[in-house]
């Protein structure tokens, strides 16, 4: 079973219950959008997927290709091919993008296996071409003085270099102008295919004009209350979220 499966997930922070039984199946090869009003648990889901220790999983399972990942540390999940976009928004003084990318790629290798220079360089050249970035950018220090758009482009660069099997993108589009949005989408779309699955969390439909999802799910009050095709995102865009909030109360 090549899929990311979330089974009846209940999550809390402190004594506050946030997710109230999320169930979701994303087959490898598909990108699913998760939409929903603010404050209803979308980011919490992303953080639990990646293993943020602040969140307590009360019950439920997350199966990656059939394997429960809830007991795994974040780096182990990453080695299994899970990639959370924007997990490194920090500036790391003294580390260039090139160094960082090599370290990140190395971290995904099995012990004793090296990232070869040719493998690194060919991937890098390709990724920079997709992202319309000059090669010189990789000598810059990670995120130092980067604009919001550049930071996101850099995160997509990491994504392209790491060849993830499942991606989780949380509000990647927030604060992006249309040009940056197009480049970010181009990067994601270049990875699409039978070997990539994932979840794209977004409050607005705009991003989904560029990354057309296979399915759309709406989370309200910590549960998936509605699922559909890309047309569901359009409906939310024109009609707002009131009608799905009513579904949650029904
Ligand atoms: P969304 O991404 O849909 O906007 P979040 O998952 O960020 O929603 O948040 C859902 C709810 O959980 C909100 O009420 C938020 O304040 C609360 N929450 C999320 N993370 C924490 C945390 N670390 N501590 C306390 N409350 C949190
Ligand atoms: Mg929020
Ligand atoms: Mg959020």
What does this protein look like?
The chain has 250 residues and is α/β, with parallel strands linked by helices. The protein has a domain of 173 residues: Rossmann fold, CATH 3.40.50. It is 37% helix and 26% strand. The protein has 9 helices and 10 strands. The strands form 2 sheets. The protein has a 6-stranded mixed beta sheet with strand order 6-7-8-3-9-10, with helices on both faces. Strands 2-1-4-5 form a 4-stranded antiparallel beta sheet, with helices on one face. Strand 9 and strand 10 form a beta hairpin. One magnesium ion binds next to helix 1. The site of one magnesium ion has 3 residues, from loops.
* Overall radius of gyration: 18 Å
SSE class: alpha/beta
Name the strands of the widest sheet in spatial order. 6-7-8-3-9-10
Q: What is the overall number of helices? A: 9
Q: Name every ligand kind in the structure.
A: adenosine-5'-diphosphate, magnesium ion
Distance, first to last CA: 34 Å
Main sheet attributes: strand count, strand direction, barrel closure: 6 strands, mixed
Give the CA-based shape.
globular
Outline the fold blueprint.
Blueprint: E1 3-13, E2 16-27, E3 31-35, H1 42-50, E4 56-64, E5 67-68, H2 74-79, E6 82-84, H3 97-108, H4 117-130, H5 148-162, E7 166-170, H6 178-191, E8 197-201, H7 207-210, E9 215-220, E10 223-228, H8 230-239, H9 242-249
Parallel strand pairs: 3-8, 3-9, 6-7, 7-8
Antiparallel strand pairs: 1-2, 1-4, 4-5, 9-10
Helix pairs in contact: 3-5, 5-6
Adenosine-5'-diphosphate binds at residues 13, 16, 18, 36, 38-44, 54.
Provide a concise account of the structure shown.
This protein has 250 residues and is of the alpha/beta class. It is 37% helix and 26% strand. It has a domain at 3-89 and 164-249: P-loop containing nucleotide triphosphate hydrolases (Rossmann fold).
């Amino acid at each position: 079973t090549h899929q990311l499966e979330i089974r009846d997930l209940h999550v809390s922070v402190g004594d506050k219950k946030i997710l109230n039984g999320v169930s979701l199946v994303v087959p490898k090869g598909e990108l699913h959008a998760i939409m929903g009003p603010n404050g209803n648990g979308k980011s919490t889901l992303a953080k639990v997927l990646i293993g943020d220790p602040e969140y307590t999983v009360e019950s439920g399972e997350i199966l990656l290709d059939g394997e429960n990942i809830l007991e795994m540390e974040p780096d182990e999940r990453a080695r299994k091919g899970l990639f959370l976009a924007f997990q490194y928004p920090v500036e790391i003084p003294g580390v260039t993008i090139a160094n960082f990318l090599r370290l990140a790629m190395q971290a995904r290798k099995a012990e004793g296996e090296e990232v070869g220079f040719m493998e690194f360089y060919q991937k890098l050249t390709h990724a920079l071409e997709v992202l319309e970035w000059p090669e010189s950018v990789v000598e810059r220090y990670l995120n130092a003085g980067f604009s919001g758009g550049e930071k996101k482009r850099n995160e997509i660069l990491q994504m392209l270099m790491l060849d993830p099997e499942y991606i989780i993108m949380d509000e990647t589009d927030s604060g992006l102008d249309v040009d940056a949005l197009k480049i970010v989408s181009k990067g994601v779309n270049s990875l699409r295919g039978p070997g990539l699955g994932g979840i794209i969390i977004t409050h607005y439909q705009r991003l989904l004009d560029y990354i057309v999802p296979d399915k759309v799910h709406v989370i309200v009050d910590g549960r998936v209350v509605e699922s559909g095709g890309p047309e569901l995102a359009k409906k939310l865009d024109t009609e707002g979220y009131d009608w799905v909030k009513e579904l949650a109360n029904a």
